[in-house]
Specification:
About 35% of the residues lie in helices and about 20% in strands. With about 425 residues, it is an alpha/beta fold. Strand 3 and strand 4 form a beta hairpin. Helix 3 packs across helix 4 and helix 3 packs parallel to helix 5. The protein binds guanosine-5'-diphosphate, 6-O-phosphoryl inosine monophosphate (IMO) and magnesium ion.
Length: about 425
Amino acid sequence: MSNRSLEGRCTVVVGCQWGDEGKGKIVDVLAEDADVIARYQGGANAGHTVHVGDDEFVLHQIPSGILHPGTRCLLGNGVVLDVLQFFEEYDAVRARGVDVEGRVGVSTRAHLLMPYHRVLDQAREGAATDKIGTTGRGIGPAYEDKAGRRGLRLADLSDRPRAERLAEEGLRRARARLDDLRADAPSALEADTRRALDAAERLLGAMGTEVGLEITAALDAGRRVLLEGAQGTALDLDHGTYPYVTSSNTTAGGAAIGVGIGPTRVERVLGVVKAYTTRVGNGPLPTAFDEAMDERMRELGGEFGATTGRPRRCGWFDAVLVRLAARVNGLTGLAVTKLDVLDTLPELRIATAYEVGGERLEEFPADIGHLERAAPVYETLPGWRRSTAGSRRLEDLPREARAYLDRIEGLAGAPVRMVSVGTRRDQIIHRD
Ligand code: GDP
Ligand code: IMO
Ligand code: MG
């Protein structure tokens, strides 16, 4: 069956909550009809899970389209590339029988996330009193070097002495910051930095490419392109719950910049939302469940981080957040995932507004203090108490489940185009 959510030639798939919405599964399903799939931001902080038959793959940097033979998978300039992790992932995927040869390309403009960025991220989190709860993958420090115009890009490896100079300076700055934090630099840091440079040189020769040129040419030739977001709208550096965010623009606007195409080339923006809400890492979660319900949903949904294994906090569906996501991403459609996880609940709640200090807020606030104090205004809907896992058409779903989806659609102001009812590829409902 063709994917109607892919009618446009260039589609952005973007997370609309705090990440882990099921982007990997949705991209994998859509990739069946796509030619090129590209990541546009983030790095190995992402963990995108894809099930193929009985096999589970967790992808961190390689786009989730890799499991469809023949697709071209690209990492854009907006990614901060952990080259050692990249080769580990590439080799692991290949060792599991996926033909990756000639299928992966990396932007020569991508910044390299070096071993000292990881060490700094972890040391900073270790020392902080008010922790962000990062994934410890070095994301913040790598983007800081990029914005500070002292970063090292893949293209720099064409001039090894220059790349070494940049890495030495990075290492020296990192050591000074570690001293300030009273943290020790691991003894292997220098050797790891050298290994990363060697790997990057190899990568440049084998897979370095102009991602923007490739994607523009593919679109001009009528090919279908998917731009795969990592993290989610509430983790966006500008639009999320700052400072409890990641260090990149996760939202759809970041896609054009992060792969190097014009924004007018994007035709569809598909927002991925979980049928409830989760968050891993620190920061406010207004619709958080009480402890018992939190525990229950974590078990039902298997809500443990795909990158760090940390338990995810769970809560009711937050339409205030998803309305923000619809606006800032310009969503043309929604993909609702994990509907099956709600199958046993007698009733469901949706937050339609917040109350802060006796005042009603309809829009997701910028002020972190407001978010921390926000009391959600809930609407209650009946549950369906039947399995949805076997549903393949909207008509197969219980009436209450359809009403729940209709309400989400109405509150978000974007049409539901796909519904996922399980981890498997075929557990998906496409809607015209
Ligand atoms: P991503 O980071 O947005 O790609 O999401 P993750 O892979 O981190 O987390 C989503 C989790 O939910 C993964 O374990 C998926 O296998 C799983 N998942 C995705 N869609 C569904 C679904 O419709 N039902 C269920 N039960 N699990 C799903
Ligand atoms: P995917 O792509 C969920 C969270 C971290 C932390 C904050 C900053 O799988 O949806 P960072 O390491 O980026 O500096 O951490 O962002 N975070 C994610 N949460 N899913 C992700 O990725 C995440 N990537 C980062 O937990 O709160
Ligand atoms: Mg994830």
